[in-house]
Amino acid sequence: MSYNENLKGLNGWLVLVGIALVIFPIRLGYLSGPLFYNMFTDGSFEYLTTPGTESYHPLWKPLLIFEASYNALLFISSLVLAYLFVTKHYLFPKGYSVFLFLPVVILPLDLYLASLIPMGEDPFDPATLKEMVRSVIAALIWIPYMFLSKRVKATFVEGKSQKNTIESGQETN
């Protein structure tokens, strides 16, 4: 068995990535699902976005729609990534890297936009800052791993054409 064959498979540190991919959509659904469902069904959204109401601000509507859309995109992306991970598809490392990088950019933007709305609460609360730090640390660890790991290069090859495999210098045997 060649050195490359020993590295091939969802083993090693990739087990942690797999666990994270299982936990992420469950955690996101548990935390965000009820929040957005209630907001859009109990009248909160209308109260915040209707001119003339006490809590109206013109930025509420775009901010809330942006946040709900972003969370839906994360949820769907996590399911697609889980599929790519299990099938060992060659697009997984790049897709996962984008998935990890997005919150590093989007969370500060979201916080900035939220800070423009006078709401009596500091959008930079400890839980939000903790989530930002978690996102940055995850990106700093796993993005380089996706591009530098020999195990990742040996494992995520499915769907890659023979021509691309030969061009990248990997043997097909």
TrEMBL record:
It holds the Pfam family DUF2569. The lineage of its organism: Bacteria, Pseudomonadati, Spirochaetota, Spirochaetia, Leptospirales. Keywords: Membrane, Transmembrane, Transmembrane helix. It comes from the Bacteria. InterPro entries: DUF2569. The keyword Transmembrane applies. The chain crosses the membrane at residues 12-30, 68-86, 98-120, 132-148. This is DUF2569 domain-containing protein. It comes from Leptospira yanagawae.
